[in-house]
Specification:
The chain is α/β, with parallel strands linked by helices and about 240 residues long. The protein folds into two domains: about 160 residues, Alpha/beta knot (3-Layer(aba) Sandwich); about 70 residues. Helix content is about 50%, strand content about 15%. The protein has a seven-stranded parallel beta sheet with strand order 3-2-1-6-4-7-5. It is elongated and about 70 Å long.
Length: about 240
Amino acid sequence: MASRKKTLKFYVVLVEPKYNGNVGAVARTMMNFDVEKLYLVNPCELDNVCYARAMHATQILDTATIFTSFEEAIKDLDYLVATSSVESKTDKKHLRNPVLLEDFAEKIFDVQGKVGLVFGREDYGLFNEEIAACDIMLKIPTSEYYPSLNLSHAVTIVLYSLYLKKALIRKRRREIGAVEKEKLYEFFSQLLDDIDYPNHKKEHTKIMFKRIMGRAIPSTWEFHTLMGVFSRAHGKIGRLQEKNR
């Protein structure tokens, strides 16, 4: 029996939100733009203020899934999008090398599966290890004099951009899922080992490769082509090593 293709579905992930009014406002904007799934990691209390700010979107709060850790919240998501106003000043630092919202909205509808839109704390944003766990980092263009947006405003801008693009774009979906991505990263890591890549550079280079793949959103055909290249390289290097022993 043929496996059913995954459909694209957005999940809003709020990591340790501190202000209940913000959570309510996020629920309201989610309903405005047809996004139903809200994941909350160690949130503040969802009190009367929260529900009042949600207006007619209280169902999103009622059905929100609450997690005690970031790792638990993201484990069933296929593609992770970190959001941050703090970016790297050089292309050599890949952790916070962002994709602009407009470019992201152009490509994301080629993705299949569950896409987690991850928003950080109102005061500290996302930690480095949380951003590293994501496939890409997204940045909303703002003034350099005051780049930080209110949490609910940031969610609204992102969801509006996606909703608008969804209304304009109708094209065939294609993209690899979580299992394929892990296999691709595993083969790339193996290739680094095969060529005796310097140990102190490996983690940095793995993150760079992950960011490149995250921005490219490769199709299934592109995935199989890359896997074929890595597989042949791994095999050839292995045979040369055996020959030289």
